Amino acid sequence: MNPYERDCFKDKMRPGGLELTEEMLKASKLSPCYILDAGCGIGDDSFYLKQKGFDVTGLDISSILIEKAKRDYEDIEFIVGDIEHMPFLSNSFDAVLCQCVLTVLSDLNLGMREINRILKPGGLLLFSDICLINEDDVKGIYTLKDLEETFMNHSFIIEESHFVHKEWKNFISKLIWNSKNLCELKDCLNGNANFKNITYCWGIIKKGE
Question: What is the mean pLDDT of the chain?
Fold first, then answer.
């Protein structure tokens, strides 16, 4: 079982937690619609969206986490699948929520192509993820500028994007109290320990009409 799947790590996987999810939803002004929780993990965000009135489907590459999500939230559809090769028809979703996922994709461009494909014209992608503050040779972690350029290369329109340094610092502070979790985070970051050049960001981007 990898660090992403370990019970001791699940509740610490994302800076900002549900509060940041709520902030993104408010900024997007999304009304309840058909939304994909891409990289849903154990389904907590999917359940949160369901409570807000959204019609939710959760997707995750881990069958272990999807099994737990199905047990905990029986009224939500959860599917095992790869964001880079999603089992959905084109133009299926009004919105996609994608948190702490872009940095773990093996091919960011392929993932963005798939998200663009399954979104309806005018659909929104709400994302949050780890990012670099300055350019650095760290595999799989991008600057916010790099992410924005990738989005635009796939015909997305950037509605807004932000750094959230406070949430990242709070996240790291909690992990420092548990050295095991901090080591697991380093593993997730491909062994990179230069936390001073890493922060967190979120944004809302729109598929062209």
Answer: 86
CA 92 to the chain's CA centroid = 19
User: Span 22-34, mean pLDDT?
Assistant: 97
User: Which single residue is written with the structure tokens 């967190």?
Assistant: 200
Closest CA to 58 of 68, 45, 169: 45
Among 144, 17, 36, which Cα is nearest to 83's? 36
Block residue for tokens 């093996």: 106
DSSP per-residue string spanning 22-50? HHHHHHHTPPS-EEEEET-TTSHHHHHHH
What pLDDT is attached to residue 141? 85
Distance from C-alpha of 94 to C-alpha of 106, rounded to nearest angstrom: 25
Among 3, 2, 41, 7, CA closest to 21: 41
| pLDDT tens digits, 105-140 | 999 999 999 999 999 999 999 999 989 998 877 677
Question: How many CB atoms sit inside 10 A of residue 106's CB?
Answer: 10
Which tokens sit at 12? 């610490």
Strands 119-132 vs 198-207: parallel, antiparallel or unpaired: antiparallel
